[in-house]
Design goal:
The complex is a heterodimer of chains A (136) and B (564). In chain A, 79% of the residues lie in helices and 0% in strands. Chain A is built from eight helices and no strands. Chain A has one domain. The longest helix of chain A has 26 residues. Chain A has 136 residues and is mostly helical. In chain B, the strands form five sheets. In chain B, strands 1, 4, 5, 6, 7, 8 and 10 form a seven-stranded parallel sheet that branches. Chain B has a three-stranded antiparallel sheet with strand order 14-15-16. In chain B, strands 2-3 form a two-stranded antiparallel ribbon. In chain B, strand 2 and strand 3 form a beta hairpin. In chain B, helix 1 crosses helix 12, helix 2 runs antiparallel to helix 15 and helix 6 packs parallel to helix 8. The longest helix of chain B has 22 residues. Classes of the chains: A mainly alpha (136), B alpha/beta (564). Chains A and B meet through loops of A and helix 14 and helix 18 of B.
C-alpha cells in the first residue's frame, strides 16, 4: 500500500523530469539522483515494518528477529524500486530516448545502493545483532 | 556452615526426604554476600538411624538424593565444579550415612550377632555370665526375643537399651557406627545437628533423646566448639489401619505346637496380602508371629506413647537441645495399607513431614543461638486448619536473617522458572538477542553455547518440576498426605499453561506494567517479560545454577501476599 502510494506520488514527477531531456548529462544525473531518492524512500517501509512489529509486540522474545528474517526483509525491499523503475521505463513517454537500458541499470543500481546503505546503516544503529548475529 | 540431619526411624527419614526436596525447590538457609536468600555455601550430611535397613522410606530418600545430585550437576559449572555442587542450592552429601543401632562392636566372636534385645543384652559370648536374670524383671520374654531388624515396633523401651549401647559405640572410631558417623571429623568444626523422629514410634521415640544426649555430652567438654543441636518431634500425624488379623488375646497362652499351627494357617490365609508382599515364607511366619504378639504400631496406643514421650522431654530430654520443635496435625491422616516396615512401606510425603523439614531449614538458617527467653516459640496456622486440606498459605514461615521465607512464595517463584527459561528466552536466536536479553550477552561474553545450556536447563527443570509436584501431592483415600488439591493444580497451571506468559505481557504499547499477576494460593507476583529479559547476574563465569538462583531471587523479591 505504502509503496503504491509512494509510486503514485513520485511517478508523474519522474516522467515529467525525463520528458524534459534536453541535456543528456543533466538528465542522467537527475535520473540517478531520482533513483537514489527512490531507494532512500524505499528503505522506510521495511524499517517501519520492523519497528512497528517490535513496538507492538508485548512479548520480548517476539521482538527478536533472526538474522535470516532480517536479510529476507532487506532483500524483499529490493523488489519495489526495481518494479517502480521498470514501470517508469514502460510508461514514460520518450523514456527510451533519454534513459536507455544501460541508464535503467545504472538507476536501478543507484536505487538499490542507496536503499541498502540506508537500511543497513539504520540496522547498525538500532538492531545490529539482527544483521550479523554471532553464534552463541 | 556444616549441617547434619539425623533422621531417626521412618518418620525422621521422611522429614529428611522432605528437606532434600525443599532445598531442591529453592528454599534458602542463608543470605549471599550481596544480600540474596540462598542455600549455597552451606553443606548437608544425612545420617539415618534405623534398624530397618530395607525400609521403603530409606529407598525413597536415596532416590531423592540421586535426583538432587543430578539436578545439581545439570546446574553446575561443568567439570570445574565439584560433583553435586552448584550455585542453585547447598551441596548435600549423596551418601546417606546409614547407622544401624543393631550393628554394635563385638567384644569377642559371637557378641551382638543375634538381632534381638536378648541377643544383644545377653550375648553369652566367651563364657561371660548370663545377664538374663537381670533383664527378666524389666522385659517380657517376647520383648527379648522379637527380631528388631525392622524397627522397635512402637516400643521405645526395647529400643532405648539398644540405642544407648549404639550411641556409646559411636564414640569409638573403630566401631561399625563410629566409622560411618566419624564424629571426630566434626570436632571443633562449626556444625548444626538437627535430629528428627516421631514421638509415638519406636526408633524415633527412643533415638532422638539418646542421640541428642550423645551429641550434647560430646560437646560438653568443649565450649569452644560451635555445635548447635536442634530436634523436631513429630506427634501422631498418621494412623495406620489395624493389622490384617487380630493379635492373641491376653489370656490366650498357646503351646509352641499350637502357635506354629496358628501361624501356618494365618500365613496361608493372609500371606498374599500387600503387607506380606515380597517376603519369603520364613519372613511371613515371622511377621505373623509379630502381629499375634502385638509387635506393631497400634493406632490406639500412639497418642498415649506421644504423651509419655513429651513427658520424658519435659523431665530429661529437652535440655540436650538448643531448639526443639514439635510438629503435629489436629486430625492425623488415616493410612490405608497396613505395613510393619520393610521395603513395601512407601508412604507419600505428608504435610507434617513438610513442616518438619521447614523446622530443619529454620534451624539451619539460624546464625545466632536463641536465648532462653525466646526458646519457646509456638508456630501455628492462622485460623482454623483443615487437616486434610492444608494449603501452602497455612504453613509457618521462617527467617533467614532479615528475609522472611514464605513457603508459598518460594514455590511460586520456583514454579515460574520452567516457563521463563524455556518459553521466555529466545533460545533459537541467542546470537541476535545480546542487546535485549542480558543472558544472551552473558553467553556471548563467556563464550557459552546456548544449545548446550538449553539441554542442561531442560534436564534440570524437568527434575525441578518433579520435586515441586511431589511436595504437595493432594490427599486421597489411597495416598493420604493432608494437602488440598488446589496447590498442585495451581502449580501445574504455572508449569504448563501459556496463560502464564500472557500475564507477563505488557498491558499496552506504552505501559510498563504486566497484564496480570501470576499467583499461587494467596501469593502473587507481577512482572513483565521485559523485566525478565534484563535479569542476569554480572558474573565473569556464569553458571546455570547462578542464573537460576538470580532469577528466582528477582521473582521472590516481587512476591506479595494478598489478604486471605
Amino acid at each position: 500500500m505504502m509503496q503504491a502510494a509512494l509510486g503514485a506520488i513520485l511517478l508523474p514527477d519522474i516522467l515529467r523530469m525525463v520528458s524534459l531531456c534536453e541535456d543528456e548529462g543533466t538528465t542522467a544525473t537527475l535520473w540517478l539522483l531520482a533513483a537514489s531518492a527512490i531507494g532512500l524512500v524505499n528503505a522506510v517501509w521495511p524499517l517501519s515494518i520492523k519497528f512497528l512489529q517490535k513496538l507492538t509486540s508485548s512479548n520480548e522474545v517476539q521482538k527478536i528477529w533472526k538474522v535470516g528474517s532480517t536479510w529476507l526483509l532487506i532483500v524483499g525491499g529490493l523488489l519495489p524500486p526495481a518494479l517502480f523503475l521498470f514501470l517508469a521505463l514502460r510508461l514514460g513517454r520518450d523514456f527510451n530516448d533519454c534513459v536507455s537500458g544501460q541508464g535503467f541499470a545504472a538507476g536501478l543500481f543507484a536505487a538499490w545502493a542507496s536503499y541498502l546503505v540506508t537500511v543497513i546503516f539504520c540496522h547498525l544503529l538500532t538492531w545490529p545483532r539482527e544483521l550479523y548475529g554471532r553464534r552463541v | 556452615m556444616r549441617n547434619v540431619l539425623v533422621a531417626i526411624g521412618g518418620s525422621g527419614t521422611k522429614v529428611a526426604e522432605s528437606a532434600v526436596r525443599l532445598l531442591a525447590a529453592g528454599f534458602p538457609t542463608a543470605v549471599s554476600p550481596d544480600g540474596r536468600p540462598t542455600s549455597v555455601g552451606d553443606t548437608l550430611q544425612i545420617w539415618r538411624v534405623d534398624t530397618d535397613r530395607n525400609a521403603g522410606a530409606a529407598d525413597t530418600l536415596k532416590e531423592t538424593l540421586r535426583d538432587y545430585r543430578a539436578l545439581q550437576n545439570y546446574l553446575s559449572a561443568g567439570n570445574a565444579a565439584p560433583p553435586g555442587a552448584s550455585h542453585w542450592a547447598m551441596a548435600i552429601d549423596p551418601e546417606v550415612r546409614d547407622l544401624n543401632p543393631t550393628e554394635l562392636p563385638e567384644a569377642a566372636p559371637g557378641d551382638n550377632r543375634v538381632k534381638t534385645l536378648g541377643g544383644i543384652l545377653d550375648s553369652n559370648y566367651a563364657g561371660v555370665k548370663q545377664s538374663l536374670p537381670l533383664l527378666q524383671p524389666f522385659f517380657g520374654a517376647n520383648d527379648l526375643n522379637v527380631e528388631i531388624d525392622r524397627g522397635f515396633y512402637q516400643k521405645p523401651f526395647i529400643g532405648a537399651a539398644v540405642m544407648a549401647l549404639f550411641a556409646k559405640s559411636l564414640e569409638l572410631q573403630n566401631s561399625p557406627g563410629g566409622k560411618v558417623a566419624s564424629l571426630k571429623d566434626f570436632e571443633g568444626q562449626p556444625t548444626r545437628f538437627f535430629l528428627c523422629g516421631s514421638l509415638h514410634g519406636g526408633t524415633g521415640a527412643c533415638g532422638v533423646p539418646v542421640m541428642g544426649g550423645l551429641l550434647r555430652r560430646s560437646k560438653a567438654g568443649h565450649q569452644d566448639w560451635d555445635w548447635r543441636l536442634g530436634a523436631c518431634l513429630l506427634s501422631p500425624y498418621f494412623v495406620p489401619p489395624d493389622p490384617p488379623f487380630n493379635p492373641l488375646e491376653e489370656h490366650e497362652n498357646l503351646r509352641d505346637e499350637e502357635l506354629r499351627g496358628r501361624i501356618d494357617s494365618l500365613v496361608q490365609l493372609h500371606g498374599g496380602k500387600p503387607a506380606f508382599a515380597g517376603m519369603g515364607t520364613q519372613e511371613k511366619r515371622q511377621l505373623v508371629w509379630q502381629i499375634l504378639h502385638r509387635f506393631y504400631a497400634d493406632p490406639r496406643e500412639m497418642e498415649e506413647r506421644a504423651r509419655q514421650g513429651l513427658m520424658y522431654y519435659r523431665d530429661f530430654g529437652a535440655g540436650y537441645f538448643d531448639e526443639l520443635y514439635l510438629v503435629g496435625r489436629p486430625v492425623p491422616s488415616q493410612l490405608r495399607e497396613w505395613s510393619n516396615g520393610g521395603s513395601n512401606q512407601r508412604n507419600p510425603l505428608n504435610v507434617a513431614e513438610f513442616v518438619g523439614a521447614l523446622a530443619a531449614l529454620n534451624f539451619f538458617s539460624g546464625r545466632e543461638p536463641r536465648t532462653t527467653e525466646d526458646s519457646y516459640l509456638v508456630g501455628s496456622a492462622e485460623g482454623e486448619l483443615q487437616s486434610e486440606t492444608v494449603r501452602l498459605s497455612d504453613l509457618p514461615t521462617y527467617k533467614v536473617e532479615a528475609a522472611e521465607v514464605d513457603p508459598e512464595a518460594v514455590l511460586l517463584s520456583t514454579a515460574l522458572l520452567p516457563h521463563l527459561l524455556l518459553k521466555q528466552l529466545p533460545w533459537d536466536r541467542m546470537g541476535e538477542s545480546a542487546g535485549r536479553f542480558s543472558l544472551a550477552a552473558a553467553y556471548e561474553r563467556g563464550h557459552l553455547r546456548s544449545d548446550a545450556e538449553l539441554a542442561a536447563f531442560r534436564e534440570a527443570l524437568g527434575l525441578l518440576e518433579g520435586f515441586l509436584r511431589s511436595l504437595v501431592e493432594p490427599d486421597t483415600a489411597q495416598r493420604p498426605t493432608g494437602w488440598a488439591d488446589d496447590d498442585l493444580r495451581e502449580i501445574e497451571h504455572l508449569l504448563t499453561s501459556d496463560a502464564v506468559g500472557r500475564n507477563m505481557e505488557r498491558r499496552g504499547i506504552l505501559s510498563r506494567k504486566a497484564k496480570a499477576p501470576n499467583a499461587l494460593g494467596l501469593t502473587s507476583v507481577e512482572f513483565t517479560t521485559e523485566d525478565f529479559s534484563k535479569w542476569c547476574p554480572d558474573s565473569p563465569h556464569l553458571t546455570r545454577g547462578e542464573y537460576l538462583r538470580f532469577v528466582w531471587n528477582e521473582i521472590y523479591s516481587r512476591c506479595r501476599r494478598r489478604r486471605g
